[in-house]
Amino acid sequence: MVMERAKRAGAAIQIAQQPIKQPKRADLVAEEIKRLITEKDLKPGDKLPREVELQQLFSVSKSTTREALKSLEVQGLIKVTTGPSGGGTIVEVPLARTLQLLQNYLFFKDVTIDDIYTVRQLLEPELAAGAVPHLTDDDFTALEANIACCDEPAAAHANRDIVRQRQEDVNFHDILAAANPNPFLRFTCELINEMIRQLIEFRNDTPQAEHERFGRANVKIHKAITEAARARDADKVRELMVIHMTEAPRYVKRMKGKLRGRLILDSEIRKRASGRGD
């Protein structure tokens, strides 16, 4: 017993003697810049003080300041430009960057398509119902254009374009999400939609007929949801979305869809952002 206590005491002393790792100066500056953003209530489009001003404000070197700004840029909080009028500009963190960070976490978890659709079944009906009073004429035009795109004859598309057509189905849900006034619900559903677009894949030997069957089912239910939304019938929209979210995973599994366990690359985020023109 005495020997055991002595060992524990020795181990405690050894731990206490280990040096505490100090954060890098650039990390400390990045934290201070975050405080500055918060205290000044800076919004996307607002500029940070110039590099030289940040150096003077925090009494650090140019290299430390640039390293701190680069860290914040990697986090998606700012965009850094060079030149006389350059510096850091506040930006809204892109959804694709958020998904990348989430997927870094989920990469080590056993997430399945069923897991994703279980959450969709809970959230998507409320998202759609909550959007109904806020949908504008432009929103309905966008919903109908999306349906028309997905309703094009599949025979006119190569197989890879059919898959893209199925991904376009998800954009219907993004249009509804954008109209919902609840920012957290909207963000969560948009994030799930982005996961579906980027991470669900289908085997090459999946029959084209299965893609077509799934496409027709999506078009049919999307038309019904749009019609109910035009009538401002939120309860009907909720009911139809429950049906939709229950049927969709059955089609995905029948098409041998699976969730890719992979890390999303920066190059993919840049390519997607470039494709949107933002």
From TrEMBL:
<feature type="domain" description="HTH gntR-type">
    <location>
        <begin position="23"/>
        <end position="94"/>
    </location>
</feature>
<keyword id="KW-0804">Transcription</keyword>
<dbReference type="InterPro" id="IPR036388">
    <property type="entry name" value="WH-like_DNA-bd_sf"/>
</dbReference>
<dbReference type="GO" id="GO:0003677">
    <property type="term" value="F:DNA binding"/>
</dbReference>
<keyword id="KW-0238">DNA-binding</keyword>
<dbReference type="GO" id="GO:0003700">
    <property type="term" value="F:DNA-binding transcription factor activity"/>
</dbReference>
<dbReference type="InterPro" id="IPR036390">
    <property type="entry name" value="WH_DNA-bd_sf"/>
</dbReference>
<keyword id="KW-0805">Transcription regulation</keyword>
<dbReference type="Pfam" id="PF07729">
    <property type="entry name" value="FCD"/>
</dbReference>
<dbReference type="Pfam" id="PF00392">
    <property type="entry name" value="GntR"/>
</dbReference>
<protein>
    <submittedName>
        <fullName>GntR family transcriptional regulator</fullName>
    </submittedName>
</protein>
<dbReference type="InterPro" id="IPR000524">
    <property type="entry name" value="Tscrpt_reg_HTH_GntR"/>
</dbReference>
<dbReference type="InterPro" id="IPR008920">
    <property type="entry name" value="TF_FadR/GntR_C"/>
</dbReference>
<dbReference type="InterPro" id="IPR011711">
    <property type="entry name" value="GntR_C"/>
</dbReference>
